[in-house]
Amino acid sequence: MSNTEHFTTKPEERIPLAQKLIYGLGGFVNNLLAAAVGGMVVVLNLHFGMSLTLVGLVSSLPRLTDAITDPLMGFISDNTRTRWGRRRPYIFAGAILAGLTFLLLWQLPPGKSDSWYFWYFLVVSFVFYLAYTIFATPWVALGYELTPDYHERTRLMGVQNFFSQLAYLVSPWFLYIMQYDALFDDLIEGAQGLALGVAALTIGLGILPAIFLRERLHPGLQEAEKAPPKRERMKAIGQGVVEFLRGFAAAIKVKAFLQLCGATFLVFNGFMLIASFQLYVIIYYVCAGDQEMGSKLAGYAGSFQTMAAFVVIAIVTVLATKIGKRKAFFVATGLSMLGYVMKWFCYTPDNPWLTLVPAPFIAFGLGALFTLMPSMVADVCDMDELQTSQRREGMFGSIFWWVVKLGMAVALAGGGVLLDWTGFNVDLGASQAAETLTWMRLCDAFVPCIASGLAMYMVFIYPLTEKRAHDIREELERRRGSVEAAVAA
After folding, report:
1. CB under 8 Å to 245, separation ≥6 — which residues?
2. Which of 116, 220, 277, 331 is disulfide-compatible with 484, CB 3.0–4.6 A?
């Protein structure tokens, strides 16, 4: 067989559409919570007058704990044994706890000091993000094990990514909803009402994967994992900590996994790094300082790009099942790079509406990234099992998504530094120096293009082709079959 041989999905390994939709609803909840916190936190500034510095701190500090809680939750989930499985109890409880703590987050009484609001929001945020992790980390891991098939994993992640993107169609309207006079008397009452709706959706939809989905971990593998006496004796806290650290260290030593994390960081970070540039370039270069026109144009471009992402997800999902995940990534990322380069030519004051042209091409970047990468991480979990005889979807999934969060934090901080480096001065308004505008346009067009090119190299050296993934799976099935026979005997 050549490395380009194509394998088809067996009928029994296809996930029913209803189950894909239910797993996708978990993705909607996951992104809805993230978008809601970011979109609603402006209440602290607009209603209570808290300084933007404090708002930034209270938003970012709780996320620092993710570096510990995400992998820890992944480890706990991987090593849990219950009659309901490793993931489902946490998904069920986490959805309920996340919904309730999100609702509690916005119960802010009037007449308190900035310090009181800061500490209340900070403390409850820590509890909320812990509950969020209890839900999200096992939900991610569950998706890796719903099917062992190389292509069906991509189809599942395509559906999941489609539902996840729906949250970003809703979230831009949060401020409008919160200050809608016909429903609410003031902004904080609007936040409390919106929080009730978000909490209801989180609980109502978030528990569905726990109720209706089943983990497909092989029975023989379950027995094999229970067999080692060391795992049975893991009762002391100190021993548990040692096992967690060993598992974390082992996961980050898997070269193929690091290549996926690196590619994800580069594509996502490159996009986020210049996210603020686009608005400034449109306002101060394309629209010559007209903020109203520039904001409207940027809004249209953003909405067009979001809508295009839904089409991209479908295209990439089909493409990956035809030519493989790596080649699909090259095609999609190449098209996004083309979109970034087109900014240099289409972002022009001569015809401002050309700003919309690059948007659908750029959508291929993130649209493909979060369809293909989770599917490829699931393949890495198979390779890891072949080498270690352990299933560690929780650990791999938690580290992967922590890298995404890290990329966002680095990009948001680095974007401001990069903008300052260009010489941009908001006090100059439309009178920015020509050199400044040129550097802004160069960064906007070519920084993400370079980052995406580096990501393509990371995936180029990634070793798991479709044939290799198929061979690994066959070897695992032979191994599991012998374990089952031994257990039955």
Report:
1. none
2. 220
**Does an H or E element contain 217, and which?**
none
Residue (of 138, 140, 156) closest to 13 by Cα position: 156
In whole angstroms, give the CA distance from residue 383 to residue 392.
Answer: 11
Contact 247, 395 (CB under 8 A): yes
Residue 375 backbone zone (phi > 0: left; psi -120 to 50: alpha; other: beta): alpha
pLDDT tens digits, one per residue of 270-327: 888 887 678 888 888 999 888 778 878 887 887 888 889 999 999 999 999 999 999 9
Three-class secondary structure of residue 151 per DSSP: helix
Tokens of 8: 């088809």
The helix/strand/coil state of 463 is: coil
> Nearest Cα to 7, choosing from 316, 322, 372?
322
- Residues with Cβ < 8 Å from 370, sequence gap 6 or more? 157, 161, 164
Written as six digits, the tokens of 44 are 């602290």
* DSSP-H helix ranges across 107-149: 114-144
CA distances to 271, 299, 317 from 46, in Å: 28, 21, 42
* 148 DSSP 8-state letter: -
